[in-house]
Specification:
- The structure is a homodimer.
- By secondary structure, chain A is mainly α.
- Chain A is built from 14 helices and no strands.
- The first copy, chain A, has two domains: about 260 residues, no CATH class; about 120 residues, Arc Repressor Mutant, subunit A, CATH 1.10.10.10.
- In chain A, about 80% of the residues lie in helices and about 0% in strands.
- The radius of gyration of chain A is 27 Å and the shape is elongated.
- Chain A starts with a helix and ends with a helix.
- About 5% of the residues of chain A have low confidence.
- Chains A and B meet through helix 1, helix 2, helix 3, helix 4 and helix 5 of A and helix 1, helix 2, helix 3, helix 4 and helix 5 of B.
- Chains A, B: GO terms for molecular function: RNA binding.
C-alpha cells in the first residue's frame, strides 16, 4: 500500500461503506426486537391466563390457557429463527459475546416452558412460583433487547430502541400487575404484601413510561398519553390497593380486573407495534441516507480524480488539519493534485471525520443514560439471584438503600456491582 | 433452532469463542500501535533534524537530515502494511468507520511528506510552518492509536493501551519541545512567545506522564520515574525559559540542547518499546487464558451431556436466575437433564453472564476516562482547524476558558463540541 491520495480515498470510501454495513446489521437487530416484543406479549397473556386458571377451581379458563399457550409457541419460532441468523452475522462483533450469553439464558429459560406448563395444568405448582418463572423468562428476553439497544451505533435508531425498550419494560410491569391483581381478586383477599407489590409495580411502570416519553417520537408519545387514562381500571386499582376484607364476588371481580387489565395491555401492545414500525422505518431511513451519501461521495471523488491528470505547473495542497489563518503560508506541492483538488479531497476527509465525531458525541451521551439503566438492572438481577427477591422487591430494596443513604440509585447499584463477585462466590 | 439445553449450550460456547476472536483482533491492533510508535519516533527525529537544518546556515546537518528521512521512510512501510491488513479484518466492526476515516487522514498527511521534504531541502519553507506540518502528521497518527485504544474490549489490554497512548502523547510534546528549543537556541534569542510555548509544552508533558503512571504496569512506571530526572537537560530548560538576550555561541548551545533533548527522547523510546512489549504480552496472555477457559467449558459441557441420557425418574432444574431462598419451591422438570446437571448448566450460563458483566463494568469505567480525554483532543483539533492555533495554543485557550469560568476542562471541551458544526460551517 502506498501513502498517496488514492489510498486516502480508498479508506475514506471504506469508512462510509462501514457505516452502511452497520446500519444493515442494526436493521436485523430491530427485526429481532419486534419479534421479541411479540413473544413477550404472548407470554404475558399466558401468565395471566395461568394465574386465573390456578387461582380458580375447576376447568374454568382451561380453554383460554390452552389458546394462550398455542399463541406463545407460535411467537417463539420467529425469535429463535432470528437468533440463529444473528449468530451467523454477528459472531465477529466484540459485543456479541455478551449478546450470545444473553441468548443462552433466554434459550435455557424457554427450554423450561413445556415443563412449567405441564405442572401448571396439573396444578402442581404454587401460583407465586409459576408467576416468578414467567417473569424470569420475560426478564431474560428484555435483557436481550437491552443488549441490542446497547450496541446501536446510530443515534436516531438508538433513541428509538431506548424508547421501545423502556415501553416494553413498563408493559411488563403492567403485566405483572395484572397477574398479581388477578390472583388477589380471585382469591378474594389483599394482604399488605400484595398491596405493597401492586404499589411497587405501579411506581415502576410510571418510571419506565416517563423514560419512554423522553425518547419516543412525538406521535407514539402522544398516543400513549391519550390512552393512559382508563377510569375503570383506575377504580379497580384503588380497590386493590385499599381493600382489606374479601370482596362479595371474588370470581367476577377477578375476571373484570383481568379483562380491564388485558384491554390495557392490548392497547399497550398496539403502541409497541407502532414503536417497532418507527424503529424499522428509522433503520431503513438511515440506510437509504447513508447509501445516498456513499454514492455522492463516490461521485465527488470521481470528478476529483478525473481532473487529476491535467497539467498543473505549480499545484499545492494543505496538509490535513492545518487549515486556518495561523498556517496561511503553509503551502506544499502535493502528489499530483491541483491546489483546489487537494483541498476538496482534504475537505471530504475532514467532513467525514467531523460527522463521525459528532455522531460519536451524541452516542456517548446516550450510552451514559443506557449504562446507568443497565447497572440498575444488573444490581436488581443480583439481588434477585442471591436473595431470592422478586424484581420489584429488589428494586424497592435498592431504592430504600438509596434514600436511607441519601445517594442516587445509580450509585447504590454501582456499589453493589463492584462487590458482585463476593456475592456470587458466597450466595 | 429448538429451545433446548443443546441450543443454550451452543450459544454459551459461541459467546466464549467470540471473546477469543476479539482478543485476536486486539492483538493485531496492538501490533499496529507498536509500528505507529516506531514511525512517530522517526518522524520526531526527522522534525528535529529539519529544525537544525533550517535554523543553521550552510550544509550543516544535511547528512543527518538525509539519514533521518531514510529511517522515517523505512518505518512507514510496516504501518501502511498493517493498515492494509486491518482493513481486511475489521471492515465488519461498527467502530471501523471512525478508524478508517482516521486512516484516511493519516495517509493523506503522509502523502504530503515527500513534497514537505523537498521544500525543506530547498529551504523554501519557514521553520514554524515546517514544524506545524510534522506536528500535524504525528497528531493524526496519535489519533489513530486513540481510536484503537477506544475499541479495546478487554480491561487489562485497554489499560496497557491507555498507558501507551498517554506516554506517546507525552513523548510527542517532548519532541515539540526539542524542536522549539533547538530553533530558539540556534537562532540565539527567546521571545515571550517561545518561552510561553516551552512552558506550555512542559506542562502538557507532565499531564500525559502522570496519566501514564496511573495506567502503566509497576515496572514501566518505575523505569520512567527513574529516568525522568536529567539535570543537564533541566539546566538548559531553565536557560530557555528565562533567558532574554542572545547566547554567546548559539550554534553550540542549539546543538547541545538538541543532543540532550534527543538523548531524553531516545530514553523515552526505550520505555515505549517496553510498553509495546507489555501490551503484546497482555494480549497474548488474555488469548491463552480465554482459549483455556474455552476448552474447560467445552469439557464441562461434554461431561454434562454425556450423563444426559441416563434414566432420571423425577429430575428437575431451576429456571435461570430464579435461584435463592425465595423460590426454593420453584422446581421444574427440565428437558432431559437431571437436577444437578440442569443446575450445573445453569451455573455455567450464569457464570459466563456474571463474568462478562463485570468485564463490561470495568470497561465502561475506563471508557469514561477515555471519552473525556477524546473530547478534549477533539476540542483542541477544532480550535487548531478553525483558529489556526498550534496544539498547545489550543490547549492553553481551553484551559484559560475553564479557569476563567471556573469549570472543568472537560465541560469546556464538551460545550465546544456541541457547537462544532457551527464552527465547521463558518470557518
Amino acid at each position: 500500500m502506498r501513502a498517496d491520495s488514492s489510498t486516502a480515498i480508498h479508506f475514506l470510501l471504506a469508512s462510509r461503506r462501514c457505516e452502511v454495513n452497520n446500519l444493515r446489521h442494526l436493521l436485523k437487530n430491530g427485526e429481532l426486537v419486534g419479534k421479541v416484543s411479540q413473544l413477550i406479549h404472548t407470554l404475558q397473556c399466558e401468565r395471566g391466563a395461568s394465574n386465573l386458571y390456578l387461582c380458580s377451581t375447576g376447568p374454568a379458563f382451561a380453554d383460554e390457557l390452552a389458546r394462550r399457550v398455542e399463541e406463545a409457541d407460535i411467537a417463539q419460532t420467529p425469535v429463535l429463527d432470528s437468533l440463529a441468523r444473528l449468530e451467523q452475522t454477528t459472531a465477529a462483533l466484540p459485543q456479541s459475546s455478551r449478546l450470545f450469553s444473553g441468548v443462552a439464558s433466554v434459550v435455557y429459560a424457554l427450554a423450561m416452558l413445556p415443563a412449567l406448563r405441564r405442572q401448571i395444568r396439573d396444578r402442581a405448582l404454587p401460583q407465586p412460583a409459576m408467576t416468578a418463572f414467567y417473569n424470569d423468562i420475560i426478564r431474560h428476553l428484555l435483557a436481550l433487547v437491552s443488549e441490542v439497544t446497547d450496541t446501536a451505533a446510530e443515534p436516531a435508531v438508538a433513541r428509538a430502541l431506548i424508547a421501545m425498550l423502556s415501553f416494553m419494560r413498563g408493559k411488563e410491569f403492567a403485566g405483572q400487575e395484572r397477574a398479581a391483581g388477578a390472583a388477589a381478586f380471585t382469591a378474594g383477599h389483599f394482604d399488605d404484601g400484595v398491596r405493597q407489590q401492586l404499589v411497587g409495580l405501579i411506581h415502576s411502570q410510571e418510571q419506565c413510561f416517563e423514560r419512554f416519553v423522553d425518547f419516543a417520537d412525538e406521535e407514539s408519545a402522544q398516543r400513549w398519553l391519550n390512552q393512559k387514562a382508563d377510569s375503570g381500571f383506575e377504580r379497580l386499582r384503588r380497590i386493590a390497593c385499599t381493600r382489606t376484607e374479601a370482596g362479595s364476588a371474588p370470581q367476577e371481580e377477578g375476571l373484570s380486573w383481568y379483562t380491564l387489565a388485558s384491554r390495557r395491555l392490548d392497547g399497550m401492545k398496539q403502541i409497541e407495534d407502532g414503536l417497532a414500525r418507527t424503529l424499522m422505518a428509522r433503520c431503513q431511513g438511515s440506510i437509504d441516507a447513508a447509501e445516498r451519501a456513499c454514492d455522492d461521495q463516490q461521485a465527488d471523488i470521481e470528478t476529483l480524480m478525473s481532473r487529476r491528470g491535467e497539467p498543473a505547473p505549480d499545484y499545492a495542497v494543505f496538509v490535513a488539519g492545518s487549515e486556518g489563518g495561523g498556517l496561511a503560508e503553509g503551502w506544499l506541492s502535493g502528489d499530483g493534485l491541483r491546489p483546489q483538488l487537494g483541498r476538496s479531497l482534504l475537505g471530504l476527509i475532514q467532513q467525514q471525520d467531523r460527522r463521525l465525531q459528532s455522531l460519536d458525541q451524541e452516542l456517548s451521551a446516550l450510552r451514559v443514560t443506557l449504562g446507568e439503566r443497565k447497572q440498575i438492572e444488573r444490581a436488581k438481577g443480583l439481588l434477585m439471584q442471591h436473595r431470592g427477591l422478586s424484581e420489584e422487591e429488589a428494586y424497592t430494596a435498592l431504592r430504600r438503600l438509596a434514600m436511607s443513604q441519601n445517594k442516587k440509585l445509580i450509585d447504590i447499584a454501582a456499589a453493589m456491582l463492584t462487590i458482585a463477585d463476593v456475592l456470587a462466590n458466597h450466595p
